[in-house]
Structure formats: C-alpha cells, structure tokens
C-alpha cells in the first residue's frame, strides 16, 4: 500500500514543477559539462605554446656567455614555465578523468603497480636534495584494479616525500583486510592540522601555498587522486598529526579485487 500512496503523490505533483526540476537538473549538468570541456580545451591548447617556450628557455638559458643577471632571469622563467606546465598537465588529467566514462579493467597486478611506483619514487628521491628512507611492503599475489592508479599512488608517495624533511621515513603497505585491501602511505613529516583535513581533495586547496609552491605543487594532486579512487569505488582516509606525520589510506572494497 505504501508504494501505491507514494505513486499517487508523485502523480499529483504539478507537471510544471516536475518539468522545472528536470530542466534545472539538465541545465546544471550542461553547465558542468561546459566547464569541464572548457578547462580541457584550454589546457590542451596551452600545451603546444608552453612546450615551445620551455624549449627556447632551455636553449637560450644554457648559453655559455650569459651574465649572472640574465642567468638568474632565465632560471626564474624556466622554473615558472615548468610550474605552469605541471598545472596544465594536471588540469588535462582532471578533465580526462571527468569525461572518462569507461569502466576500470577487472583486475590489475597491484604489487607490480606498487613496485613501479616505488622505483619512480626512489629515482625522484635520488634526484632530490633531501634523502628519505623509503620502504615497500607488499604480498606477491594480492590483485587490485588499474586506471591511472599508478599516477594516483605515485602522487601520494611524492607528496609524502615533499612534506617530510630530510632523514624522514616513508612506508608503503599493501595488505588484505576484512572488507577488502588497504593501501597505506605513511610518513613522519610535517603533518596537517585537523581543520584542513576535509578540504585537501578540493582543487587548488593547499595548506601552505608558499611551501607548496616552493616544492613544485599545483594543489591539484589530491583532487586527481580522489577522482581516480572514485573510479575504483575506493575510499581515501587521511589521518594526520601536525608535526608528527600523516597516513593516507585507501580502502579497496572486496568487490573490486580478484
Ligand atoms: P600539492 O600539489 O600542493 O602537493 P595536493 O593536492 O597533492 O597539492 O595536496 C594538497 C595539500 O595537502 C598540499 O598542498 C599539502 O599542504 C597537503 N599535503 C598533502 N600530502 C601531505 C603529506 N603527506 N604531509 C603533509 N601535508 C600534505
């Protein structure tokens, strides 16, 4: 009977109001799509001129007869062009993710993805000015899913490295838990104050924009991570204590594992 009553109520809603709601929803959806397309197109169009600029800055900036003043100028321009390039690439990635309606593949060799992430993080560790102790702990045969997963996890590891002072320690652990599988990226770095935790995955949100800019951050990394994880029905949990460190944990549900 309850079903019948509800049905009756729905049919009594004035048709004009229902139509208005549907139109509003369609309009919001349309505007959202326009925004995504616009960001995607602009980022795409900016890539070529940026590549040309970066190429010339590289060539002219390494000329042997430059005065110290010009050298400083070129270094600054190169650094800013690189920053712009990172932002454009991240925006492009976000808009691709937003437009990508394909289903993630059924399974992926998660230990293989993590090994690759680990190797990339080690290479960046070796290049960076401050060395960090990196650990990876993964069983051989626990499978997960892969769509942009590599770059999302690498993002978490590189963040841990960025926000952990020299001599710090980072652990990456992939383990089976009751409800599925859990990936933890843990550091003993600068940590995050509680009032920021819920906002970290917003686009361009940064706790300390000066510091983030200095470390080459765009503020888009965790927004990308969240999108990628949504595709896998995975949940991101962030635990952190200021001055002690952070743990970025990702729970992959059983249904998404093999
Ligand atoms: P960014 O490119 O600035 O690093 P992200 O979206 O990846 O942007 O991260 C958003 C903000 O979250 C960062 O600016 C930083 O303040 C904070 N953050 C992310 N990871 C960590 C971490 N492991 N330790 C401390 N702060 C972090």
TrEMBL record:
Which GO cellular component terms are attached? plasma membrane
Domain Histidine kinase spans what residues? Answer: 41-256
One record GO biological process:
cellular response to phosphate starvation
Answer whether the UniProt record assigns the keyword Ribosomal protein to this protein: no
Q: Which residues cross the membrane?
A: none
The record's catalysed reaction(s) read: ATP + protein L-histidine = ADP + protein N-phospho-L-histidine
So which residues are the signal peptide here? none
Q: Which GO terms describe its molecular function?
A: ATP binding; phosphoprotein phosphatase activity; phosphorelay sensor kinase activity
Principal location class:
membrane
The keyword Zinc is annotated on this UniProt entry: no
Mind listing the UniProt keywords for this protein, alphabetically?
ATP-binding, Cell membrane, Kinase, Membrane, Nucleotide-binding, Phosphoprotein, Transferase, Transmembrane, Transmembrane helix, Transport, Two-component regulatory system
Q: Where in the cell is it found?
A: Cell membrane
This entry's Enzyme Commission designation comes to 2.7.13.3
Q: What is this protein called?
A: histidine kinase
**Source organism (scientific name):** Moraxella caviae
Q: What is the lineage of its organism?
A: Bacteria, Pseudomonadati, Pseudomonadota, Gammaproteobacteria, Moraxellales
């Amino acid at each position: 009977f309850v079903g019948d009553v509800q049905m009756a109520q729905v049919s009594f809603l004035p048709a004009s109001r229902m139509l208005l709601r549907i139109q509003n929803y369609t309009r919001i959806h349309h505007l959202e799509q326009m925004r995504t397309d616009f960001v995607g197109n602009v980022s795409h169009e900016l890539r070529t001129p940026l590549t040309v600029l970066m190429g010339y800055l590289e060539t002219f900036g390494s000329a042997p007869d430059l005065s110290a003043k010009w050298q400083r100028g070129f270094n600054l321009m190169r650094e800013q062009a690189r920053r712009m390039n990172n932002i454009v690439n991240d925006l492009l990635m976000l808009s691709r993710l937003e437009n990508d309606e394909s289903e993630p593949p059924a399974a992926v060799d998660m230990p293989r993805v993590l090994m690759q992430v680990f190797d990339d993080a080690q290479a960046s560790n070796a290049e960076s000015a401050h060395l960090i102790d990196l650990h990876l702990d993964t069983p051989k045969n626990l499978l997960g899913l892969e769509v942009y997963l590599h770059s999302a996890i690498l993002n978490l590891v590189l963040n841990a490295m960025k926000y952990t002072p020299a001599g710090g320690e980072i652990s990456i652990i992939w383990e089976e838990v009751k409800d599925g599988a859990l990936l933890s990226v843990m550091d003993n770095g600068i940590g995050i104050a509680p009032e920021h935790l819920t906002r970290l995955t917003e686009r361009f949100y940064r706790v300390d924009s000066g510091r983030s800019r200095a470390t080459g951050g765009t503020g888009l990394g965790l927004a990308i991570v969240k999108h990628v994880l949504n595709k896998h029905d995975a949940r991101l949990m962030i635990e952190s204590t200021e001055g002690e460190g952070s743990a970025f944990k990702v729970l992959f549900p059983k249904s998404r594992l093999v």
